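Homework help board

Subject: predicted structure for assignment chain

Our instructor gave us this sequence and asked us to write out the predicted structure in C-alpha coordinate form, then describe one feature. I got the C-alpha coordinates but I'm not sure how to describe them. Can anyone check?
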Amino acid sequence: MRYTFAVLECVVNISEGADKARLATLAESVGVDLLDLHSDADHNRSVFTLAGVEAPRILARTALEQLDISVHEGVHPRVGIVDVVPFVAIDPSTYDDALAARDDFARFASEDLGVPCFLYGPERTLPFIRKHAFVDLLPDFGPKTPHPNAGAMCVGARPILIAYNLWLKDCTLEVAKRISKELRSDSVRALGLQVGSHAQVSMNLIAPDVTGPDAVYDFVAERADIDFAELVGLVPARTLARIDRARWEQLDLSSDKTIESRLARRNQTRR
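My C-alpha coordinate output:
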Protein backbone atom coordinates (compact mmCIF):
# COMPACT_ATOMS: atom_id res chain seq x y z
CA MET A 1 0.00 0.00 0.00
CA ARG A 2 2.17 2.82 -1.26
CA TYR A 3 -0.32 5.48 -0.16
CA THR A 4 -0.01 4.62 3.57
CA PHE A 5 1.93 7.81 4.32
CA ALA A 6 0.50 9.85 1.44
CA VAL A 7 -1.56 12.99 1.81
CA LEU A 8 -4.84 12.21 0.08
CA GLU A 9 -8.15 14.00 -0.24
CA CYS A 10 -11.32 12.06 -1.08
CA VAL A 11 -14.38 13.94 -2.29
CA VAL A 12 -17.27 11.52 -1.76
CA ASN A 13 -20.59 12.35 -3.44
CA ILE A 14 -23.56 10.87 -1.56
CA SER A 15 -27.07 10.70 -3.03
CA GLU A 16 -28.77 12.47 -0.13
CA GLY A 17 -29.05 16.19 0.38
CA ALA A 18 -32.29 16.84 2.26
CA ASP A 19 -32.49 14.64 5.36
CA LYS A 20 -30.58 16.66 7.97
CA ALA A 21 -30.68 13.94 10.62
CA ARG A 22 -29.15 11.34 8.32
CA LEU A 23 -26.57 13.81 7.04
CA ALA A 24 -25.61 14.59 10.63
CA THR A 25 -25.14 10.86 11.29
CA LEU A 26 -22.90 10.56 8.23
CA ALA A 27 -20.85 13.61 9.23
CA GLU A 28 -20.40 12.36 12.78
CA SER A 29 -19.16 9.00 11.54
CA VAL A 30 -16.00 10.50 10.01
CA GLY A 31 -15.19 13.01 12.78
CA VAL A 32 -12.25 15.36 12.24
CA ASP A 33 -11.44 13.78 8.87
CA LEU A 34 -14.41 15.70 7.44
CA LEU A 35 -12.87 18.81 5.85
CA ASP A 36 -16.07 20.14 4.30
CA LEU A 37 -19.72 19.19 3.74
CA HIS A 38 -21.90 20.73 1.05
CA SER A 39 -25.54 19.60 0.72
CA ASP A 40 -28.23 20.54 -1.77
CA ALA A 41 -31.84 19.45 -1.34
CA ASP A 42 -32.86 19.96 -4.98
CA HIS A 43 -29.90 17.99 -6.29
CA ASN A 44 -30.57 15.65 -3.33
CA ARG A 45 -26.83 15.25 -3.11
CA SER A 46 -24.06 15.97 -0.63
CA VAL A 47 -20.35 16.34 -1.17
CA PHE A 48 -18.16 15.14 1.72
CA THR A 49 -14.57 16.32 1.40
CA LEU A 50 -12.48 13.92 3.49
CA ALA A 51 -8.84 13.49 4.50
CA GLY A 52 -7.14 10.12 4.19
CA VAL A 53 -8.23 6.63 3.16
CA GLU A 54 -10.06 5.33 6.23
CA ALA A 55 -12.78 8.00 6.41
CA PRO A 56 -14.18 7.15 2.93
CA ARG A 57 -14.65 3.54 4.02
CA ILE A 58 -16.43 4.56 7.21
CA LEU A 59 -18.65 6.98 5.32
CA ALA A 60 -19.53 4.43 2.64
CA ARG A 61 -20.48 1.78 5.16
CA THR A 62 -22.59 4.25 7.17
CA ALA A 63 -24.32 5.59 4.04
CA LEU A 64 -25.34 2.09 2.98
CA GLU A 65 -26.84 1.53 6.43
CA GLN A 66 -28.81 4.78 6.24
CA LEU A 67 -29.91 5.22 2.62
CA ASP A 68 -31.66 3.42 -0.24
CA ILE A 69 -31.13 4.33 -3.90
CA SER A 70 -34.44 2.76 -4.92
CA VAL A 71 -36.38 5.64 -3.32
CA HIS A 72 -33.96 8.43 -4.30
CA GLU A 73 -35.13 11.42 -6.34
CA GLY A 74 -32.99 14.36 -7.47
CA VAL A 75 -31.90 16.35 -10.51
CA HIS A 76 -28.24 15.26 -10.48
CA PRO A 77 -27.15 12.19 -12.49
CA ARG A 78 -26.17 9.23 -10.25
CA VAL A 79 -25.54 5.49 -10.31
CA GLY A 80 -25.68 4.83 -6.58
CA ILE A 81 -26.00 5.95 -2.99
CA VAL A 82 -22.24 6.40 -2.65
CA ASP A 83 -22.14 7.73 -6.16
CA VAL A 84 -18.63 9.07 -6.72
CA VAL A 85 -15.47 8.37 -4.72
CA PRO A 86 -12.46 10.20 -6.20
CA PHE A 87 -9.05 10.12 -4.53
CA VAL A 88 -6.87 13.19 -5.04
CA ALA A 89 -3.16 13.41 -4.25
CA ILE A 90 -2.10 16.50 -2.30
CA ASP A 91 1.54 17.56 -2.65
CA PRO A 92 3.96 15.88 -1.99
CA SER A 93 1.87 12.78 -2.75
CA THR A 94 1.58 11.54 -6.33
CA TYR A 95 -1.06 10.36 -8.76
CA ASP A 96 0.22 6.82 -8.26
CA ASP A 97 -0.69 7.14 -4.56
CA ALA A 98 -4.22 8.15 -5.53
CA LEU A 99 -4.50 5.23 -7.97
CA ALA A 100 -3.40 2.76 -5.28
CA ALA A 101 -5.99 4.16 -2.84
CA ARG A 102 -8.67 4.03 -5.54
CA ASP A 103 -8.08 0.38 -6.35
CA ASP A 104 -7.92 -0.62 -2.70
CA PHE A 105 -11.19 1.18 -1.93
CA ALA A 106 -12.90 -0.52 -4.90
CA ARG A 107 -11.81 -3.92 -3.58
CA PHE A 108 -13.15 -3.04 -0.13
CA ALA A 109 -16.50 -1.76 -1.46
CA SER A 110 -17.03 -4.78 -3.70
CA GLU A 111 -15.85 -7.45 -1.25
CA ASP A 112 -17.02 -6.05 2.11
CA LEU A 113 -20.10 -4.11 1.01
CA GLY A 114 -21.12 -6.12 -2.06
CA VAL A 115 -21.39 -3.00 -4.27
CA PRO A 116 -20.16 -3.04 -7.89
CA CYS A 117 -17.49 -0.44 -8.65
CA PHE A 118 -16.57 1.27 -11.91
CA LEU A 119 -13.08 2.76 -12.09
CA TYR A 120 -12.28 6.10 -13.64
CA GLY A 121 -9.00 7.88 -14.16
CA PRO A 122 -6.53 6.75 -16.84
CA GLU A 123 -8.96 4.08 -18.11
CA ARG A 124 -12.00 6.30 -18.75
CA THR A 125 -13.79 9.42 -17.60
CA LEU A 126 -16.64 9.77 -15.14
CA PRO A 127 -19.04 11.04 -17.86
CA PHE A 128 -18.26 7.89 -19.88
CA ILE A 129 -19.31 5.72 -16.93
CA ARG A 130 -22.55 7.68 -16.49
CA LYS A 131 -23.40 7.04 -20.14
CA HIS A 132 -22.32 3.39 -20.41
CA ALA A 133 -22.67 1.79 -16.94
CA PHE A 134 -24.60 -1.52 -17.11
CA VAL A 135 -25.37 -0.82 -20.80
CA ASP A 136 -22.15 -1.77 -22.55
CA LEU A 137 -19.77 -1.33 -19.63
CA LEU A 138 -19.56 -3.80 -16.74
CA PRO A 139 -18.08 -3.00 -13.30
CA ASP A 140 -14.36 -3.42 -12.76
CA PHE A 141 -14.93 -4.85 -9.27
CA GLY A 142 -17.81 -6.72 -7.69
CA PRO A 143 -21.18 -7.95 -8.96
CA LYS A 144 -22.13 -7.40 -12.58
CA THR A 145 -25.56 -6.02 -11.64
CA PRO A 146 -26.48 -3.06 -9.39
CA HIS A 147 -26.85 -3.59 -5.65
CA PRO A 148 -30.63 -3.41 -4.94
CA ASN A 149 -30.29 -0.69 -2.30
CA ALA A 150 -26.89 0.88 -3.03
CA GLY A 151 -26.69 0.80 -6.84
CA ALA A 152 -23.06 1.13 -7.88
CA MET A 153 -20.03 3.30 -7.15
CA CYS A 154 -17.78 5.29 -9.45
CA VAL A 155 -14.34 5.14 -7.82
CA GLY A 156 -11.66 7.35 -9.28
CA ALA A 157 -8.25 8.94 -9.09
CA ARG A 158 -7.97 12.45 -10.44
CA PRO A 159 -6.11 15.72 -10.12
CA ILE A 160 -7.61 18.53 -8.05
CA LEU A 161 -10.76 19.99 -9.58
CA ILE A 162 -13.24 22.65 -8.50
CA ALA A 163 -16.97 21.92 -8.37
CA TYR A 164 -18.76 25.17 -9.06
CA ASN A 165 -22.36 26.27 -9.67
CA LEU A 166 -23.70 29.50 -11.11
CA TRP A 167 -27.35 30.19 -10.37
CA LEU A 168 -29.00 32.25 -13.08
CA LYS A 169 -31.53 35.02 -12.59
CA ASP A 170 -34.81 35.02 -14.57
CA CYS A 171 -33.41 32.46 -16.98
CA THR A 172 -34.84 29.36 -18.65
CA LEU A 173 -33.40 25.86 -18.56
CA GLU A 174 -32.90 26.03 -22.32
CA VAL A 175 -30.62 29.05 -21.94
CA ALA A 176 -28.66 27.33 -19.14
CA LYS A 177 -28.18 24.28 -21.36
CA ARG A 178 -27.03 26.44 -24.28
CA ILE A 179 -24.52 28.29 -22.11
CA SER A 180 -23.26 25.01 -20.67
CA LYS A 181 -22.70 23.61 -24.14
CA GLU A 182 -20.75 26.71 -25.17
CA LEU A 183 -18.71 26.58 -21.97
CA ARG A 184 -17.55 22.96 -22.25
CA SER A 185 -13.89 22.46 -23.06
CA ASP A 186 -10.90 20.32 -22.15
CA SER A 187 -10.77 22.22 -18.83
CA VAL A 188 -14.50 22.62 -18.03
CA ARG A 189 -17.36 20.13 -17.78
CA ALA A 190 -20.76 21.80 -17.57
CA LEU A 191 -24.46 20.91 -17.35
CA GLY A 192 -27.53 23.11 -17.51
CA LEU A 193 -29.95 22.05 -14.77
CA GLN A 194 -33.33 23.12 -13.41
CA VAL A 195 -32.90 23.39 -9.64
CA GLY A 196 -36.16 24.38 -7.98
CA SER A 197 -37.27 27.64 -9.58
CA HIS A 198 -33.76 28.45 -10.84
CA ALA A 199 -31.80 27.46 -13.90
CA GLN A 200 -28.24 26.57 -13.01
CA VAL A 201 -24.94 26.07 -14.81
CA SER A 202 -23.28 23.27 -12.84
CA MET A 203 -19.56 22.79 -13.54
CA ASN A 204 -16.48 20.79 -12.77
CA LEU A 205 -13.37 22.86 -13.46
CA ILE A 206 -11.11 19.93 -14.21
CA ALA A 207 -8.04 22.07 -14.95
CA PRO A 208 -8.40 25.05 -12.59
CA ASP A 209 -4.89 26.25 -13.43
CA VAL A 210 -6.19 26.76 -16.98
CA THR A 211 -9.77 27.89 -16.31
CA GLY A 212 -10.69 29.11 -12.84
CA PRO A 213 -13.91 30.31 -11.18
CA ASP A 214 -13.35 33.93 -12.28
CA ALA A 215 -13.07 32.92 -15.94
CA VAL A 216 -16.25 30.82 -16.02
CA TYR A 217 -18.16 33.48 -14.05
CA ASP A 218 -17.24 36.13 -16.62
CA PHE A 219 -18.07 33.79 -19.52
CA VAL A 220 -21.56 33.09 -18.16
CA ALA A 221 -22.16 36.71 -17.10
CA GLU A 222 -21.73 37.79 -20.73
CA ARG A 223 -24.66 35.55 -21.68
CA ALA A 224 -27.06 35.70 -18.70
CA ASP A 225 -27.67 37.49 -15.41
CA ILE A 226 -26.11 35.59 -12.50
CA ASP A 227 -28.02 35.48 -9.24
CA PHE A 228 -25.14 34.03 -7.23
CA ALA A 229 -22.10 31.76 -7.38
CA GLU A 230 -21.72 28.61 -5.28
CA LEU A 231 -18.49 26.78 -4.51
CA VAL A 232 -19.09 23.08 -3.85
CA GLY A 233 -16.33 21.84 -1.59
CA LEU A 234 -12.90 23.45 -1.48
CA VAL A 235 -10.33 25.11 -3.76
CA PRO A 236 -6.55 24.81 -3.85
CA ALA A 237 -4.78 27.82 -2.34
CA ARG A 238 -2.94 28.47 -5.60
CA THR A 239 -6.26 29.05 -7.39
CA LEU A 240 -7.30 31.61 -4.82
CA ALA A 241 -3.95 33.37 -5.04
CA ARG A 242 -4.44 34.07 -8.76
CA ILE A 243 -7.81 35.80 -8.27
CA ASP A 244 -8.22 39.43 -7.23
CA ARG A 245 -9.21 39.47 -3.54
CA ALA A 246 -11.89 42.07 -4.35
CA ARG A 247 -13.75 39.36 -6.31
CA TRP A 248 -13.65 36.60 -3.71
CA GLU A 249 -17.06 37.37 -2.20
CA GLN A 250 -18.70 37.59 -5.62
CA LEU A 251 -17.20 34.22 -6.56
CA ASP A 252 -18.04 32.56 -3.19
CA LEU A 253 -14.37 32.14 -2.34
CA SER A 254 -12.36 32.81 0.81
CA SER A 255 -9.08 31.82 2.46
CA ASP A 256 -11.05 29.49 4.78
CA LYS A 257 -12.35 27.54 1.79
CA THR A 258 -8.98 26.20 0.67
CA ILE A 259 -7.91 22.58 0.93
CA GLU A 260 -4.72 23.62 2.68
CA SER A 261 -6.46 25.61 5.42
CA ARG A 262 -8.88 22.79 6.22
CA LEU A 263 -6.10 20.18 6.29
CA ALA A 264 -4.09 22.38 8.64
CA ARG A 265 -7.10 22.76 10.94
CA ARG A 266 -7.72 19.00 10.89
CA ASN A 267 -4.08 18.21 11.65
CA GLN A 268 -4.08 20.68 14.54
CA THR A 269 -7.22 19.07 15.96
CA ARG A 270 -5.68 15.58 15.80
CA ARG A 271 -2.65 16.62 17.91
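Reply (TA_rk): Your C-alpha coordinates look well-formed. For the description, you could write something like this. Helices lie at 20-30, 54-66, 95-112, 126-132, 173-183, 213-221, 237-241, 259-270. That's the kind of observation they're looking for.
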